[in-house]
Amino acid sequence: MERIYIFLALFSFVFFLEAIGGSYINSAVQNIERQFQMSSRTSGFMISASDFGYIPCVVFIAHFGSKGNRARWIGAGAILVSITYLMLASPNFLFPQGHHDINTTAVAAQLKPTAGQLSPNSTLRELLSYQLIRDRMPHDTYRSLMNLEDETTPIEKYNITGKNPNPTNGIAAVPINNAYTIDGWLIDEALIAANDVLANGTSQNTLRSSLSLFINRRANTSDKDIKKLRISAAAPFTFCGKLTNSLRAIIKNSKCEEQSSNAYPFMVFFFSLLLLGIGRTVPWSLGVPLLDDNIKKKSLPAYFGAISSIRVLGPICGYMIGSFCNKFYYTLHPPNGLTPADPTWIGAWWMGFLFIGTIALFPSTALFFFPQGKQGSSSSVQLHDVHKEKLKKTEEDDRTLRTKLKDFGRSVKTVLSTKIYLGSVLGRVCDILAFKGYIVFLPKYLENHFGIPQYLVHRYMAMFGVFGFGLGAATGGYITQKLKLNGRRAAMFVMLMSTVNVCLYSAKIFIGCDSIVNSIGLNNRDTNYNFTRSCNSECMCENARLYPVCDSQGYAYFSPCHAGCREAKQYGSDPILDFTSCECVKGGVVSKKFCENTCKTSTVVFFLTVLPGSFVAGLGVVPAMLILLRSVPPESRSLSLGLQGMAVSLFGTLPSPIIWGLVIDAACLVWDKTCNGARGACSIYHPDRLRIWMHLLYVVIRMVALITDIYVWKHAKHLNIMDEPASEEKDNIRRNSIKMQAVQPDP
Q1: Is residue 450 a contact partner of residue 606, using CB atoms and an 8 Å limit?
Q2: How many CB atoms within 10 Å of residue 443?
Q3: How many beta carbons lie within 10 A of that of residue 399, not counting itself?
Q4: Reduced to 3 states, what is the DSSP secondary structure of residue 182?
Q5: Domains in the chain, please, with CATH?
Q6: pLDDT for 166-181, tens place per residue?
Q7: Least CB-packed of 46, 136, 280, 298 within 10 Å?
Q8: Model confidence pLDDT, tens digit, residues 238-282
């Protein structure tokens, strides 16, 4: 096998892994936001950190790296990228969200019964004043019982014969998990007795004896009860109960004292992405000219199409890895009641970075030590820029730094004086400005707008979006070579693809839907998104996190606490819980199983536009790349790619996530709060604003790119991208003759 093919395989594999990492970062953004309570504006700025490293380095590395061993430069950059992926996983371990030591003295004091409550002559009012009983008693029932006249007869011993301390759901005899309730069966018996007292005016004996037994059982089980309360307080859902929710507030304050902000994780992410930007400057700006020096020009469209397709397979694998990792909870031990389908699920984003960083080290090291081969042999690879080598022969080797800088300035001026190059670069800047931020926050949009779980979002993006783009890139390379698109014909092809892309994305503005999360916001527009009602005003729901549940009619609530639910019931190991004794709900029961997704049709229509849209976008990649590469003198190719990379990063990838983050945050209706009371992550968005603003911004930017494509077409009349230049044709003839001599036997 010829050495160039080995290099091509290693180079393609490195490109492949780099593309995996790029798309995987997009799949991890929302999980990072939730774990470290970052807004989209903050995460967008964080993602742009790689461009802060890329921009000041790419031009100098492209210019000076092209004068050395380009394989070694590419390998060094790829090794740095591998290390940064490992660094990106570190905040999960440096800033763990683990067990917190808290002061439970105040809670224990409320759990300790008073002497009057333990007395055999306790009145109904004294028994009802016990906080755990008060928390489980519906407000109307509690108020009616407090208005009754107390009975002063001695409390009889409560007969538990025939009672079931381990109840079932009554349907399939599945036992109820009592992890979130303290003697819930006994309170249920007391509630039945209370209803009998209020409805039929019967004696209070049974009610008082059941409540007295409940309180007396608390006298010697304080530690056990606090443990159960802590499980409830640490659960992903919140239900109505002052004692549990006060403990939740204590836990939150304890976390805030240990880590007052997300500044430290942000700094680690930012520095890691900064190094990632430096590392990724090398492969594109040096690798493409290296291949151009070793492959015939007529074969370049096919090779570039193949490389583009291989590199596009990277995002497919990146999103599939993201889909796999998002099925695991970030602590690897998900709490009861939380599944990957929940909008508050935090996937194990750090696993993918560890995997990608470890795998990428091997081909990167192989590239760094890649041998050139014997000079002049048929198997040698031209690792040094042949055009730079020719220039060196006509110049003195002992040039001063000032002379080198002047030479650099002249090269930059030559590149920037090319109209086709400037128009092509401006078009690609607009493409990236529109695409980068859109693709970073597309998973968030799909999850919030259509109610698609994260792990399915990334799978769909790989199946429809990235696959379509890769297929389009390969097809575009084949069409360019088969039809011999040259000059204006290639520019016209790129322009037509941009037009179709704008039309397809314009159609997405009208594909809308109200998911379960969106309906929560729409249901509370009249109250300015204040979820507190008279039925839940005493539940202490201030610290409740988003946990959508619905009643039997499908009406959605922000959390079980806001539905006024006082008990959580889990049947066996079923992760979907029922929440009962809900004062704000007719029927008194809410659950996730009552929430019906009505966005299936809209989801199908949306992804039917994604596949052709991504395919069309991919069709224009190869001809656009060849136009850019052939619009400058051969000796300036590396510099031109470096300048293009700097322009794309400075005006495209750097501001794009920040701009999109601002647009997305502007559509937020309900914010989580951080420790200092500032805005954290967004819980609920305005569906119409989010949909229209995202796609309208994309379409406007792409229309500007379309204008630049028209400009390139106007000036591309004499552009030659398919035929061999005379000097390079001679070099190829010489190399082929050497190869033929190497395979001929001696006479």
Answers
A1: yes
A2: 24
A3: 12
A4: coil
A5: 1-95+259-369 (1.20.1250.20), 104-161+172-250 (no CATH)
A6: 555 554 445 566 677 8
A7: 298
A8: 888 888 888 888 877 777 766 556 788 889 999 999 999 888 877
